[in-house]
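Q: Predict the bound structure with alpha-D-galactopyranose.
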Amino acid sequence: MDGISLECTYFSMDGLKERTFRQIFHSPPEILSSAPGRINIIGEHTDYNNGFVLPAAIHLRTCFLAAARPDNEVRIWADDFSEEETFPLEAIAPSEKRRWANYVKGIFWVLKQEGHRLRGINAMVWGEVPLESGLSSSAALEVSVIMGLCALWDIDLPALQLARLAQRAENEFVGVKCGLMDQFISVFGRKDSALFLDCETLDYAYHPLNLERAGLGILVHDTKVRRKLASSEYNKRREEASRALEVLKAKGARSYKDATTALLQSAREMMEAVPYKRARHVITENARVRRAVEALQKDDFGSLGALLFQSHESLRDDYEVSCPELDLLYDVGKGFPGCLGARLVGAGFGGSGIALLEKRAGGEFRKRLLVEAEKRGFPRPEFHEVAIGQGAAVSKVNTSDGS
Ligand code: GLA
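A: Predicted complex:
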């Protein structure tokens, strides 16, 4: 590794990116930050409903390399797209053409809103997290940028605040009303562990994922389906679930966390069919997260897998965020020896699913999915075997020539 020194051994990089940075900006980089994407073991569409989630950071990361400039200009080079976005700090406005730029600009915007002093920078971003695939590439980008900028400008913020500001950037600047799960796990992820988070109190606990020992692995199945309407559908689900909660509150529930299916049933006549189904998903999914934690504590992967299947059913039928390409993973997984569980991951409407698999069954399982996808005329899926990685990190760059 020439050029860039990193405190963290789990993330390594050769000097290539440093050289690219120098070629573009004619000056050396000063800091490097990186943040991971995530899978979510279980607990989908529960975060913004103040419920429970159980995500884990993955080894795929997004990186941000930056240096100060003497003026108020910001130049960001996105190495994966060979595109540059420039803007003055006085006018941080969303970009029409470049969606990636809005996640970066959103962080500048939110830090400005918080009263921090911004300065001009040159920066480069690149990443390994597949975009819009349900693996949270947006949070990885937001978190890597906020970590990098805070290090560069000596802004000292607690880790939780970093996650919250990154979420606020996405909510208010990008316009997606996401919950906190993705940014939280990107900051707090821990190697080989899943993280249980109560999204209301923000209490959290790590649970070791002893998959290797059990001969298991997690396979990500990227359907390659990307839906333009995903963010508006997402915001709609959020609104429907909160409408249902109002009725449950009138029935005495304080939040989804303490609502039961019996209480929901008693409110059946007071709710339209759609909010009723959304509420049923949230209530049962919260219960599944709790049971998943118990299963993990006993290394009971059979029970964990069964919960994954149930989660998919509920997301498909009650929350209605699946699609035929995601259902394929579930359908194939359900009858496949060696597949303990499978479900869609993240917001849904396309993107990816995860399967909990016996390692030795992985090859055959992929083959089956490829054959079935082709038969049904779906895009050819892509697979990633994910390792559970560490949360975000930042370090100063020690350039090879000392400059
Ligand atoms: C997206 C959002 C998260 C969460 C999931 C669904 O990933 O960013 O906040 O709501 O969808 O669980």
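A: The pocket of alpha-D-galactopyranose is lined by residues 44-45, 47-48, 136, 178-179, 181-182, 346-347 (CB under 6 Å).
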